[in-house]
Amino acid sequence: MIELFQFDWSPFCIVQRRILEFSGVPFRITNIPNGDRTLIWRITKQRYHAVPVIRDGKSVLFEVSDDSQVIAKYLDSRLRLGLFPWELEGVQSILWRHIETEVEGLCFKLNDIYWQEIVPRSEQLLFLRHKERKFGRGCLDQWRAERKELLAQLDQRLVPFEQMLMYKPFLLDQRPRFVDFDLYGMLGNFLYSGHYRLPAAHTHLREWHRRMERVQSKSFPCENAHQSRCPGAPGRGL
Ligand SMILES: N[C@@H](CCC(=O)N[C@@H](CS)C(=O)NCC(=O)O)C(=O)O
Description:
- The protein folds into two domains: 2-79, Glutaredoxin (3-Layer(aba) Sandwich), CATH 3.40.30; 86-219, Glutathione S-transferase Yfyf (Class Pi), Chain A, domain 2.
- It is α+β, with helices and mostly antiparallel strands and 238 residues long.
- Helix content is 50%, strand content 7%.
- Bound molecules: glutathione.
């Protein structure tokens, strides 16, 4: 069974978790403490310490650069999900870089403001130290003070996605592609604390988000040549 190593509020873990749910195959979640990456270090043979990581039998998958999509592409080809069609590769690769920097960069700050409600007490010291070493002393207080402006910036950065969704049920197509899951993951991180809603004015985005919470691959025709290996089809061998 495929195993996802993660922690719950990580934007990049939410992306892979939703892709796995979408596929309909059974999978196992192993939560790791945010501040203790010993297990990740061990299973990746001392090559990686971030999450998400996927283990599938003897294979252990993790990202090789900031904008690689090793895990999602592996799940896509293993489970035949149609997330990376060749004709969308160019536009998707531009979009996922944007989503994972411009959108993620605001979402994680807005969620981290509530770190004391989210991070278990035993992990709070390491969390605070990690953030302050990376972003400077007092960064979490500073983001709390900037909350209003950060929310306004996020509203603005979501406008192009709202515009895309005025014409299609998913960002690029009639079915979800990788960038839908990518944006869903970043917004999942933003919404994790329970203190925010998606902007009321972005009505198409809100409807899309509701669709993304439930969407299943079996609702869409398989686009691969080997139809018998589609999820939901007999003989998929999982
Ligand atoms: N581009 C990577 C980014 C992974 C990443 O940044 N993961 C975060 C959690 S959201 C992490 O583990 N960071 C290292 C740390 O917190 O020490 C991906 O898509 O998986």
